[in-house]
Design brief:
The complex is a heterodimer of chains A (about 210) and B (about 60). By secondary structure, chain A is an alpha/beta fold. Chain A is built from 7 helices and 7 strands; from the N terminus they run H-H-E-H-E-H-E-H-E-H-E-E-E-H. Chain A has a single domain (about 25-205), classed as 3-Layer(aba) Sandwich (Rossmann fold). Chain A has helices at about 5-15, 20-25, 35-45, 80-90, 110-115, 125-140, 185-205; strands at about 30, 50-55, 95-100, 120, 145-150, 160-165, 170-175. In chain A, helix 3 packs across helix 7 (about 185-205). The N and C termini of chain B lie far apart (about 35 Å). Chain B has one domain: Beta-grasp domain (Ubiquitin-like (UB roll), Roll), CATH 3.10.20. Chain B has one helix spanning about 15-20; strands spanning about 1-5, 5-10, 30-35, 35-40, 55-60. The longest helix of chain B is centred in the first third of the chain and has 7 residues, at about 15-20. In chain B, strand 1 and strand 2 form a beta hairpin. By secondary structure, chain B is mostly beta strands. Classes of the chains: A alpha/beta (about 210), B mainly beta (about 60).
Chain lengths: ~210, ~60
């Protein structure tokens, strides 16, 4: 039995407070890339009662994703946008979802992201990470932008941090642990980084801008 | 004195491009902020570092 929208909102308000929940419910957050970071960020934000998520990824669910990404074995081959929407709608049925099954480029980024209050970069590829940071900071300079860099391997989870580089630009991760130069990606450490990103979204919406 | 990634340096007079090249960064993996404003890649060669500047070079690594 799925609760009604009013029941869900009452449950959020009881835990987050009415005033903060109003801000969370009014917010639109874009998640760029729906892999280990993006799928976990999306789940944390939908659980927090964020009003709307813009979910963007060109890729489909692969067996190599299941060790860290929030998909199920029976979702192999589905576009990640579709599979994650399905999982999120079971967790938080009243979070509005806008999906784009496209590759984000310098050319389309501003159009795709202009409706978001806060943008989370959750790519795997460092070239794409740098491209989106440069594009958003140049073309959408009044959007909060939360990037990620360095969460591979089995180094301590305590080295994963959030830094605020400028008024609108935050970056999470240890800054150095690179896939290919360490033991690979582990769900828990990637989730720690995703949790930093999602928590930074919540703090910004609560008006707490420091780290 | 120019502060780069939190460290004091004597990079006054260098351009952003000269600093990046001499430090071994690959420009396709980085974003650069000067005094908390993004420096567009097209401006690296013409942006000269001066006393009191704070430069942050973010070098993105793979994984996500």
């Amino acid at each position: 039995m799925i609760p009604s929208k009013n029941e869900m909102i009452a449950a959020y308000e009881a835990r987050h407070g009415k005033e903060l929940q109003k801000k969370l419910s009014a917010a639109t957050v874009a998640v760029c890339g729906l892999g280990g970071l993006g799928s976990n960020i999306s789940i944390a934000l939908s659980r927090a009662g964020i009003g709307k998520l813009i979910l963007i990824d060109f890729d489909s669910v692969d067996i190599s994703n299941l060790h860290r990404q929030q998909y199920k074995a029976n979702q192999l081959g589905l576009p990640k946008t579709e599979a994650l929407s399905s999982n999120l709608s079971e967790i938080a049925p009243y979070t509005a979802l806008e999906t784009h099954t496209v590759k984000i480029t310098e050319e389309n980024a501003a159009d795709l992201l202009s409706g978001a209050d806060i943008i989370c970069e959750a790519f795997d590829n460092p070239r794409a990470k740098a491209m989106l940071a440069n594009t958003v900071l140049e073309r959408l300079p009044d959007k909060y932008y939360i990037a990620a860099s360095g969460m591979a391997g089995i180094d301590s989870a305590n080295t994963i941090k959030t830094r605020r580089l400028s008024k609108y630009f935050y970056i999470c991760g240890d800054g150095v642990s690179e896939v290919g130069k360490s033991e690979g990606l582990f769900a828990a450490r990637v989730m720690a980084c995703a949790a930093h990103q999602a928590h930074t979204v919540i703090r910004i919406l609560a008006g707490k801008f420091d780290v | 004195m120019v502060i780069i990634n939190g460290e004091k340096t004597n990079s006054d007079g260098m351009t952003v491009e000269q600093f990046i090249k001499s430090s071994g960064y690959n420009t396709v993996f980085i974003a650069v902020e000067l005094n908390e404003d993004i420096v567009p890649k097209a401006d690296y060669a013409s942006t000269v570092l001066k006393d009191g500047d704070v430069l942050e070079v973010v070098n993105f690594v793979g994984g996500g």
